Amino acid sequence: MVKKFKIYSIGNDGSFNYYVFDKRQLMVEELSKMLREVFGLKLDMYDESFDKNYKLVHKKRHFEKYKDYHESLRATRNNSRADIFYGSKKVFLTVICSASSRKKFNEDLFKFCSMPEPKERK
Question: pTM (2 decimals)?
Fold first, then answer.
């Protein structure tokens, strides 16, 4: 069984949807797969740069090191858009998409995510 990641918040207003996750490398990698499969959005998993000999080098991105960083993903084929905000301990995802795409995304999401039980107010 795959370890489930925590999702702390989820909500929507029309075509705008938001999600809050733990900031974990494997979580972002799984999220990347889902964004590509459901919306056709590509989150780069590698950075490209040139070494001193001008040779192209690919380095795996370490998302857990990102802090106060934002990236935006867009797909022209279905007008979907996602924005990912990396905080110190959480990843915030916003997605603009159709209701049917949101339904598919949420179904896939809860295959590897779970929400913690709400705490009682005192």
Answer: 0.84
